[in-house]
Design a protein that fits this description.
The chain is mainly beta. Helices cover 10% and strands 49% of the residues. Residues 1-21 form the signal peptide.
Amino acid sequence: MRKFLMAVAATLAFAPAAVFAHGNMKPQHGGVVKMSGETVFELVVKPAAVELYVSEDDEAVAPADATASLVVTAGGKETSVPLTAGKGNAFVASQKLPKGASVGVVVKYKNGTKTFTTFKLP
């Protein structure tokens, strides 16, 4: 039994940390994924629109439970873009995002907490 426990301990010691991470880091909607704490953000940039999908502890955050906005910085100019409820758990805006922009994402939950991350567009 002791040898078995030693083998398990050795295996776990050398396992990659990503195995223990929360949240799915694979894009589910064709966007770019970032993680901040226990929150996973997926930003989908379309030619004339943007979509944001948020999950917290592997559970989708519905627009009914939070509000979301973007702060887009490009060419020295900062623009605030409020997101509205889209289909399913999407936050959406009819907004073209400029190439190379820095996009800050802020999600405010009904309980008063908020979380954020930043994307750098190619």
